[in-house]
Each structure stands twice: as C-alpha cells, then as structure tokens.
C-alpha cells in the first residue's frame, strides 16, 4: 500500500484490520493509518496549503483515538492514541529542515547505490529507488512544495513510495534518521560554509583593493578611543583582512573535522546489514567514515564549531561596522558611506543613517546567541541521539544567513565609502600624536625611555597650556623643557617620518604596507 500523506485512507479501508501492517505495507503508509491529532496542526504557523477537511483529521478507530491523515511520518505502529497538538507543533521539523532536501536526497541516492552494490537490495530495487530520488530532485528544483510530513526524511520517503509503491519503503533499510540527519547536515554545511568562505574572500579582496587606493592616507590610530599615533588607512584596512583570514581558517578547520560520514551508524550501534560504509563515504565526497556509531549520531560539535567560527567572524565584522558608524558621524567625518548602505529619517530631512553598518553590528549578537543556545542544548545530553539535537537547525540556518548578509552589506559599505583624507590629516594634528616619536628620539640619544617619557609628558603639558600641539613648540621652548632636545631630536615631530620609521614586519611604513597588499592580492586571487 503506498502512502497517501495528504489523503485519508480510512475512506477506502474503513476497518481496523486494514490498518494492521502487512508484509508489504510501507511504514510511511502507516502514517495515514496511525492515530493522530485532531487538527489545528498549524494553528500558530504558516498556512499549510492542506485542504481543511484533511487537516481536520478523521476518527477511524474506536476508543477515542484519531487518525492523523494529513501528514507522512515513518512510525506509528505501536501507538493507540494521537499525538498532542502542542507536541506536533514543536516536534515537526519539516517547516525548517526542508532546507536540507537536496542533501537528504543526495545522501539517499548514495545509500541506495550501496544497498544495491552490497546485495542488501536487488539491483533492480536499488535502481528504482535511485531513479525515483532523481526524479524527485528534478521536481524539487522545479519548485515542488515540500509539506505534509513530520520531517524532510519522512517527506522524501513518502514521495518515493507514492511514486514507486512498496519498494520505496526499502530505502530505509540499514539506515536510521539518526545517521541520516547527521549526514545531511554535514553535506549541507560543506556547501554553506563554502559559500560563506567565498563571501569572506570577496570582502577581504575589497578591503585589499581599498588599501591599495589609500596607501598615502594617514589618520590617527586610537587606543582607548583616544588618538594614539599616526597610521596609514591602508594598514587599518589590512588589520581586518588579517582577521578575515583567521575566520577563514577557523571555518576550514571546522570543515576538515566534520569531513566524515556517519551513514552506517544506524540508530545508535551500527546495523546488522553488510553495509559498505567506505563506499558510501566516497560517493558522498567524505574523506573518511565516522569511527564510532554512538559518536556519529550523537555529536554536534561540528555545529558548535561552525557556530563558534560564525560568532567570531560576525564579531569581527561588528567591529568594522562600529568603526564605520563612528567614522561617519559629523564629529569624526572620516568617511562618507554611499547611499546604497544608508537610509534617511522619516522626520529629519538632513539625516543619513548608517543602518547597514548598525545592523551588521547588532546581528553579531544574534549569531553568538545561536552559539550560546546550542551550547546549552548540548550540555548534559546523554549518548546517543536525543531529540534535543533537532534544535541544532534553526539557529544554524539563521547564523549562516545572517553571516552572509552581514558580509555582503559590509563589502558594499567598504567598496562605496569615500574617505575624507583632509579630515583624517587634520585629526593627526592637535592630539599629541607624535609624543612617542619625541620620546623615542630622546631615547636614541642615550636617555632611558622612562626618563624621556617624563620629559615629553612635561612638553605635552606646556603645549596644552599654550593651546598648541608639540610640533608647534619652538626649538627654544623644547630646549627649555629639556636641553637634550636638539634640532635632530625635534625633527622627529613629523607625521610622515613617524609612519616611515615603523619599517618592520607588521609596521605601518608605506613600503611594508605595500608588501602586505601585494601578498594579500596574490593570496586572494
Ligand atoms: N528531525 C530529526 C532531527 O533533526 C531527525 C532525526 C529524528 N530521529 C528520531 N529518532 N526521531 O534530529
């Protein structure tokens, strides 16, 4: 009997006996026959598109139990009563796990191949399953609606059985949804993380390009958000490129570690069928098989690792976003963001708000929230599979989407921003940015740095009293503070000289920054 997920079999069969499983009865068929809820399934969710009559369910068995006739599921034989609506609402994962459909079908195709190859199924049966799965994939790609099942795995099996008849129910031989979902999620993450990595590199390339344009632009660096020392804007952009490179490394590490195939682990302990795990792993592009069945179905540290990497990545993005917000204020006016990433105010006609950057800043909290939630889910979970693990998906999906949106917005911000180089140069004056230079120059004459620091501190005090910056003090005024200050020491009070002096790996000297730009350009090509 093939399953009819959205139709009531009771109309056709009408007797208790008809609901007893026969040798050929497909487990999915039991979905239609198993007792179920009384309706209201999506009361709080999206409209299901399922006819009201079907949604309402139908009473077919005595003793007050109900049939759940609108939804395909893979179990039910041992139940007498229906599932409570509230449980259905939190148990059904199809509304979100349908996002795994392509990876689920892919995993099933590899599994079916293995079933045929090993003789667990007849070759013709395996072929029928594979053809059915491939045809289903074509329909999915064409926009076929995915609804009317407990989860994506049940949906695929139900559709397959609807097409092929009882043989569809053979797909699940030597497999459990536990090893299946652990496989789907790894396959899915491989693609999704690949896409995040592309976006990371796109932003990094844009930062490197802008660094090339801004190689002569000088602005203050800040510590404690107080002006500190002059720095090249190019050097500033490249700081974020370094962070993004580490973000990339973290994501690649996560990919490496999740690169093992759980299929064959079954529900918890493996399977009694003579499976070819290595072959399935190879078919699915995994480097290896998971070596412990309990771990294979119970672990989600690959999800935690992905979420951690995304949380760190979006936190890094948030810092850049915050600087763009700060730098585009009238008070700073270091940059002007493009119209594409700013919005106006409904009341204040003059406003140009950096919404894009602000939201990127805020979204980081959301991603680290998903990490925290998942850490909480995993903590204290006994081996092996627990339904708690189903909670891994929504946060993960949202974290991936949010990260990709944030990367895209920031890339647009950086690509389109105009640097106000005059403002930046002005900001290098009046803030005693060269105090370290004067102290260093005195130190080169043999004075202990601590003493030089004290001397320059006094010079800053004098300059402050006169309302000027250090380079504005005359040589005489400087000598009065400290006789060791001669013309060559005073010559250190020059912004470009300060920048050029930092001529070592990691320093802001233009030559060094140029080298870094070249190296990054090559690395990101
Ligand atoms: N929807 C489930 C999940 O995401 C699939 C696995 C269900 N396994 C089970 N034994 N009920 O984890």
Question: What's the helix and strand layout?
Answer:
Elements: H1 10-13, H2 27-33, H3 52-56, H4 85-91, H5 94-97, H6 101-117, H7 123-141, H8 152-164, H9 177-213, E1 218-223, E2 226-232, H10 233-257, E3 260-261, H11 277-283, E4 288-289, H12 293-298, H13 301-327, E5 335-336, H14 355-378, H15 392-416, E6 418-419, H16 421-427, H17 435-444, H18 449-466, H19 475-481, H20 487-490, H21 495-501, H22 510-524
Parallel strand pairs: 3-4
Antiparallel strand pairs: 1-2, 5-6
Bound molecules: arginine.
How would you describe this structure in keywords?
22 helices; two-stranded antiparallel sheet; disordered N terminus; Fumarase C, Chain A, domain 2; Fumarase C, Chain B, domain 1; single chain; mainly alpha; Ribonucleotide Reductase Protein R1, domain 1; binds arginine; 525 residues
What does the model show?
- By secondary structure, this protein is mainly alpha-helical.
- It folds into three domains: 30-169, Fumarase/aspartase (N-terminal domain) (Fumarase C, Chain B, domain 1), CATH 1.10.275; 177-426, Fumarase/aspartase (Central domain) (Fumarase C, Chain A, domain 2); 435-493, Ribonucleotide Reductase Protein R1, domain 1 (Orthogonal Bundle).
- The protein is built from 22 helices and six strands.
- α11 (277-283) links the parallel β3 and β4 (288-289).
- α6 runs antiparallel to α7 (123-141) and α9 packs antiparallel against α22 (510-524).
- The longest helix is centred in the middle third of the chain and has 37 residues, at 177-213.
- Bound molecules: arginine.
- Arginine (ARG) is lined by residues 93, 97, 151, 177-178, 181, 385, 387, 389-390.
- Residues 93, 97, 151, 177-178, 181, 385, 387, 389-390 line the site of arginine.
